[in-house]
Amino acid sequence: MIACSRLRAQSGVRGTWLVSTRKILVVEDGYLFAEEIAANLRGFGMEPVGPVGHLDEACRMAREKAVDGAVLDVMLHEAASFAVAAILRARGIPFVFLTGYEEQQIPLDFRAAPVLRKPFEVSELKEAINSLPSARWRQDLSGSSARTVGDTPGLDPVKPLDESRRKQ
Description:
Elements: E1 23-27, H1 31-43, E2 47-52, H2 55-64, E3 69-73, H3 82-91, E4 95-99, E5 115-117, H4 122-130, H5 163-166
Parallel strand pairs: 1-2, 1-3, 3-4, 4-5
């Protein structure tokens, strides 16, 4: 389990990620826990943005920062993080919820998002992040040569292949 005294960042993330570093917003009000999550993200080859533990700053970062995904603690010091989730969703940025509460506390609008119950294993964090939709990470990054593993030019990564393309 992720515990303040037992952090072991792991690497070797596989999936359809860009070869370049992915930026993941970390919204968690427990300072040591947030730092552990950030260290694990670095171990996975990602760049943590934050961490932030207050709703107003988290909303600002969700609006302004160029991120590829987010890890959101459901309950921050003063409020739930659903406003952050709404901003991210509007921007097309996938996220994972972290919670020690029952999943019924999550509004119906957000229940499709992956949820990690605290405490969780590092492997569960990696799996949850790998489960995030990767379509945003497949787009051209301002002339960058970064590519997605298995990327095929001209194919929409979200839509299934039609019959004509399957035969090619």
